[in-house]
What does this fold into?
Amino acid sequence: MLRSRWGLQLQAQAFRQLMEVGMVLHRCGEPRPPAPSFTKTTPTTLSRIPGNIDLLFYTPEGYHSRGQEKRYAVVVNFHGGGFTIGKATDDARWAKAVVEQVDAVLVSVEYRLAPEHPFPTSVEDGADAVLYLVEHAEELGLDRRRIATSGFSAGGNLAVTVPIRLQAATKWRTHADAERKLGNAGEGELGGNIVAIVAWYPSTDFATHTRAERRSSNTRPDRELPKVFTDLFDASYLYPPHNVSMSDPYLSPGVAPAEMLKALPDDIIIYTCEWDELLVEAERFRDRLIQELGKNVIYRRVDGVPHAWDKSPNFLQADQLREEVYAEVCSHLKRVFDSC
It folds into this structure.
């Protein structure tokens, strides 16, 4: 049954407030994550729904005193929350790791949320964010040839679907053509800009199995996300349901045409959770990227943890596993950037 939009909005607002309390506690733990260095706002250009997108910048220590020639690699990050809840500050601990260990700028995107802005608004907002960073790279001290996307859960989906969406953006193709004329990129490299994807426990396939079938794949159902959350996420984002194709490549990159996936960067990092309904589809996507498309996929299943394990609200105890895993991924990301 189609749920009313106002009812979904009321429920989403309530859960957003609850999540914000949890994230405040999460950020209280030691060591404290940083606040954003500054924020930029850009108007949307790709969505049919006009609006603005806030971009939160986390920068390395020497960023504000950099010389004119200094250019930082940049990680464009998308928070989780089923495309419905969450904020760009939720991944501040990941931002801290990237800034300190990769010496890169992390830009966290405050994409617009469902149900107010259903699919594909978040994908379009993410693509607009990358376009803004490319167009303003010089003034922001960014190296437009060393961009990565990252994201958690729904944000992990966006880390993959945003580069796919950019293939259809006229402005992105213009940048790609300019890079090729300068000899800085080869054919099919998205203009030489996006060189890596980091997808943390991503949703990748709404088409192959129903939500109930996906939930049943979790080996620890007692550690699953509550059904009330996933029901809200699906009803809010996939609206109106009869108009959304579950196999749309901007929704389900795991079943996207091979030609679209070929244009993704060669280096893709996927980290999943053992106790998660999204595990099976992520591993299926990993296998396709390697076997069918020849991508260099670095994969790890973090054992003994549920979905969003790294966002625990327990601020009384440092999470050594989170620090270890973040550092591991940062080392992979730094290697990719250093090789560019």
Notes: The longest strand covers residues 142-152. The CA atoms of residues 153 and 202 lie 4 Å apart. Residues 181-192 have pLDDT under 50 and may be disordered. The two ends are 51 Å apart (CA to CA).
